[in-house]
Amino acid sequence: MAQFDVYANPSKKGRQAYPLIVDVQNPIIEGLSTRLVIPLTNQKYLQHQTLAKLTPDIEYEGQIYLLLTPQLTSMPSHLLKDPIGTIKSLRNIVVDAIDFALTGV
């Protein structure tokens, strides 16, 4: 598992609205049994206007998703089996969104 790896959502219930999740946990806390993740969604599933800095567009595999930073959550590590890709090239965008959620800056 690596920070900014992308996984197919292991939850059958949430997979339609949130098809992908991003592991945002720093490797320094690798020993935990959980990982911090943020879901990605297609914009069509949002009913309200978003804050671009809080929910930035993420391009992955030719599609645009929204990073749902307010839904940052933990997930048991064993559910994250095989990453399907990475967005580590978008690290600054993801970290800025988390920072905005915590500090408002």
Number of helices: 1
Estimated share of beta-strand residues: 25-35%
Low-pLDDT runs: none
Instruction: Output the CATH class name.
Output: Mainly Beta
Number of domains: 1
User: Architecture, according to CATH?
Assistant: Roll
* Estimated structural class: alpha+beta
Helical proportion? Answer: 10-25%
Spatial shape: globular
Stated plainly, the CATH topology is called SH3 type barrels
| DSSP strand count | 7
Q: What is the CA-atom radius of gyration, in angstroms?
A: 13 Å
- Rounded mean pLDDT score: 92
**How far apart are the termini?**
29 Å
Q: Please outline the major beta sheet.
A: 7 strands, antiparallel
Question: Helix and strand succession?
Answer: EEEEEEEH
Structure in words:
With 105 residues, the protein is of the alpha+beta class. The protein has a single domain, classed as SH3 type barrels (Roll). It has one helix and seven strands. It has one helix at residues 91-103; strands at residues 5-8, 20-23, 34-41, 57-60, 63-67, 73-76, 85-86. Strands 1, 2, 3, 4, 5, 6 and 7 form a seven-stranded antiparallel sheet that branches. A hairpin with a 2-residue loop joins strand 4 and strand 5 (63-67). The chain is globular and about 30 Å long. The termini are far apart. The model has no long low-confidence stretch (mean pLDDT 92).
